Amino acid sequence: MSKIYNELYEKISPGSGNVDKSHMLVNVATFPDSLLHALGAYSRVPKLLEKIPRDIKGIVISGMGGSFIGGLFLQDVLYDTSNLPIFLVRDPILPQFVDSSYLLIAVSYSGNTEETLRVFGEALQRKIPIISVTSGGLLQKYSEKNSVPVVSLPQGFQPRAAFPYMAVALLSITETITGDVGLLKQLSECAENMKATRDEALMKTIEDAKDFFSNIEKGLTPLIYSYRPYISVGYRFKTQLNENAKIHAFYLDLPEANHNEIMGWRQEASDKFFATIIRGSQEQYYMTTRIEFLIKHLEANNIPTINFLPEPRYSGKKICELLDLVFRLDLISVATALKLKTDPTPVDTITKLKKYLEKHIDVEKELFPQERP
Amino acid sequence: MSKIYNELYEKISPGSGNVDKSHMLVNVATFPDSLLHALGAYSRVPKLLEKIPRDIKGIVISGMGGSFIGGLFLQDVLYDTSNLPIFLVRDPILPQFVDSSYLLIAVSYSGNTEETLRVFGEALQRKIPIISVTSGGLLQKYSEKNSVPVVSLPQGFQPRAAFPYMAVALLSITETITGDVGLLKQLSECAENMKATRDEALMKTIEDAKDFFSNIEKGLTPLIYSYRPYISVGYRFKTQLNENAKIHAFYLDLPEANHNEIMGWRQEASDKFFATIIRGSQEQYYMTTRIEFLIKHLEANNIPTINFLPEPRYSGKKICELLDLVFRLDLISVATALKLKTDPTPVDTITKLKKYLEKHIDVEKELFPQERP
Asked: Is B137 left (phi over 0), alpha (psi -120 to 50) or beta?
């Protein structure tokens, strides 16, 4: 293992290399490389989608957990620039309004996520154009049987660790469908930049997060806030802390949280919770005013507050800021696990749940009764 | 004050009538009456909307906090039945894709919510058809100046307490636009039924929630779960606990929470958090299987778990189940406040925030520069 990883493990917590048995740290540390690899792999997406209609009313993206966040990232990126509506469905039921004038993208890393398969099956019935993004499973099998194009994800990852591939896959699909190019080029430049400065960024991220770690080590639970276009970053950080560190962590978007959750921030909350605010160069002045108030209120009630910002050199480049934040917060979530002497990779409860569901629900028989031999 | 309220206060906590200085308990207890009143008041909505186009691509609803939940309720109600997409915007920025082929409904109880006014101002620029739902303020003023129809909310409520009016207003608008009638009639029948059985339901709700209260009194923080079509009910309960009881409470939808948040449910969480699951007759068998697993997992880790279900007599009537749950969980949130000796009505921090924003941001000058004398 290369020198930088040993240094990182020692910096996080001496001996923590032995805790990280499946090397999740290496996975998150090679985020820029994964982006570049994905850019190469998905250059053939336009060819793959030749038969997909372009004159659609909107894109509906079905995905759960780690496979939901790719869609949220795309929504953040396109929110204030694209004429194409993006709807996210993290549910087993496809909304009634989705008909053949929409495009469905079904995202499931394993290809066996029941919720996504149900939406996929319903979309086949409604004759909706579909693109699948998966590494295999039933989604791959029934996509091939139904001539649905499959954008392949590489095998051997934890679903949440395949985010860079999902992000690039979804951007490639969107650029192909809309003809609005430019984002992948920008992403490619950021990824090169992130790769060139990677080792330094890794060490600095751990150094800068020491107050975050200290609040975690005191047993406080993080409440995470961000706003458009950083919503995907905030929600991902929550889920990465859940899955890597196996701790509770909660997310709510601003300014919505100022209309309700802010009432829970009283003196009495200071021995249980701390606040984490994710910000960036896209912050409007009226958002700054709101966050100023929130921070003063938290201070007045002795609530520890952590701010995370992207590297200043990515200022004004939305997609770079998002990726830089995901890269560094993923690392922080893994380091949080290691500080707590927890192996970040296994998610025992989710694995048990999957087995329980397999035992009780025969998805293939229910959804594709005629097609199985 | 009528006998039932005194009995309720005594049942919740002796002397708690003195804590509830602005009678929030009476407000939530008269929920069925408010629904019936709103049904009468909004019978003239069709006339009001004569000039609004019917051939739209979808409805976009802008609203924050208490004014967001009306839209979420509508989305729950229409999710699996309506051909019209409903998009919710709880953000100051209107997504780029929204153009004059959509209808915007701007919901702000006070009419001075900056986020909603920004979306409203942008929609005027883009020449998008608009309907406003408000009790006054700048939204009323600039709606009238721009010939935007206003569906009026009654004055003198806390914004969150105007939910029954917002729900009926949004349903009336939707029935008028789509021509799909029937939901208001069903709502009217439920409201009559709820009113007839009200006093009994109030006492029973407090009785049935005693385990919920006992977890709160132990200082545990509730994590609330529900699923389509009960998402609005779960999110509202979280926000009502925030605003009425001034405590932290968190919400995540199922099955999404099973993909990440479930990892935080370990033995160590049992002295800080408890789980609250909201369920109903719309539960699919595959959701039941997931919730069975979740409950077993929580039990195995000594996490207290509370289930809330609608009255069995509303089984199969989605809209009645939603309203019955909101009615009873609103009451529980007020009772939670009173158990904690907290006056449910004032939301000091939010009031302070509004003053701070008024001092720093001149919304009217920025958004309507030419129109002000």
From this structure: left
Q: Where are the domains of chain A?
A: 3-21+196-339, 29-187
Q: Is pLDDT of B372 > 80? A: no
- Beta-carbon separation of B263 and A243 below 8 A: yes
pLDDT for residue A130: 98
Give residue-wise pLDDT tens across range B261-290: 999 999 999 999 999 999 999 999 999 999
Topology of domain A29-187, CATH: Rossmann fold (3.40.50)
Give A275-299 pLDDT, tens digit per residue: 999 999 999 999 999 999 999 999 9
**What's the CATH fold of domain A3-21+196-339?**
Rossmann fold (3.40.50)
A354: annotated active-site residue: yes
Cα(B263)–Cα(B268) distance, rounded to whole angstroms?
12
Candidates B81, B89, B263: best to mutate against A (most CBs of A within 10 A) is B263
Nearest to B361 among A247, A249, A289 (CB): A289
CATH superfamily, region B29-187+349-367: Glucose-6-phosphate isomerase like protein; domain 1 (3.40.50.10490)
Contact A90 B253 (CB under 8 A): yes
Domains B3-22+196-339 and B29-187+349-367 share a fold: yes
Tell me if residue A360 is catalytic: no
Is A83 in Cβ contact with B99 (below 8 Å)?
A: yes
Six-digit token string for B123 = 């929609």
To the question of domain B3-22+196-339 being in CATH 1.10.150.170, the answer is: no
Q: Which residues of B are tagged catalytic?
A: 243, 259, 354
Catalytic residue among A243, A311, A317, A318: A243
Q: Residue A214 burial by CB count (10 A; 0-12/13-18/19+): exposed, middle or buried?
A: middle
Question: Do A256 and B58 lie within an 8 Å CB cutoff?
Answer: no
